Amino acid sequence: MTSPTIKAVLIDLSGTLHVGDQPIPGAREALQRLRQSGRRIRFLTNTSAKSTTQLLEQLNGPNLQFDISRDDLTTSVLATATYVKKHNLKPLCLMEDVSDMPADVQDIQPKNDALRATTVPSTTSFDSVVVGLAPTQFHYSQLNMAFRILLHHSNNLIAIHRANYVRDSSSSGELSLGPGAFVAALETSSGCDTAKVMGKPSREFFSSALWDDVPVEETCMIGDDILADIQGARAVGIGTTILVQTGKYLPGDESKSTSLASHEEEEDQLKMSGSSSDVFRLCPSVVEAVDFILSTYC
């Protein structure tokens, strides 16, 4: 009997390999063992607070030392910039100030003059809204501006991601409100179509991270988010998914439905399996996840 095969692994970053500038204990060594096995590895992130260059500086800096290359990184910010440029949009960006960020973030909104203006800019300056994790932007005047834009451009609400909560990278390590609530508020208030999600769990994002010469059923996803990581990976057919109990994981996440409401075929698959626990594995951390892959798959 032929052993099952995992040829490639997708790994979430924040909460799975690290929290802020602290690596998950044993993560560096686990990553090294996985690399030594010869499997391909790609790293996925929904972060909207850093450009690709800044993120790589953090990941490869003295605190984390993960030795990750740009080619091995798929980010929701870069996916958003690509989408905005492709459709020639002029978005109002509900993001932290990107004026000092390198090209991939600036490509979303090359000039932030309108955002920094002392007077409220005209809604005619914009034809779309981009929402990231932006605590300083989530106030009434900015949200009201976004609302007014969407009244005229209902198809152009773009979410870098729509996580309901994130793990705070500060010393407290508590959960904090994510952008998802603000995306939902704009959808509801403006009556616009469902936001276009650029990052996980969108099919397009996961598909862009896959390898052309590796069957999707021979690919594994490791992450700490039952929706963004596990459901998103399952929706594109990734054969093995592993939920780790670090980062934003909360007790009971493993009992939540692994079907995506927008993907009926995934709902049917869940019904046939009988339980969400049948379609992914639960591990204490990325260390045990890597151990499982190396000990189970050829």
UniProtKB/TrEMBL annotation:
Q: Which NCBIfam families match?
A: HAD-SF-IIA, HAD-SF-IIA-hyp3
Q: What Pfam families is this protein classified in? A: Hydrolase_6 (PF13344), Hydrolase_like (PF13242)
The protein's required cofactor(s) are namely:
Mg(2+)
Q: Which InterPro entries match?
A: HAD-SF_hydro_IIA (IPR006357), LHPP/HDHD2 (IPR006355)
| GO terms for MF | metal ion binding; phosphatase activity
Protein name, per record:
Haloacid dehalogenase-like hydrolase domain-containing protein 2
Q: Which domain of life is it from?
A: Eukaryota
> Which residue intervals make up region (Disordered)?
252-272
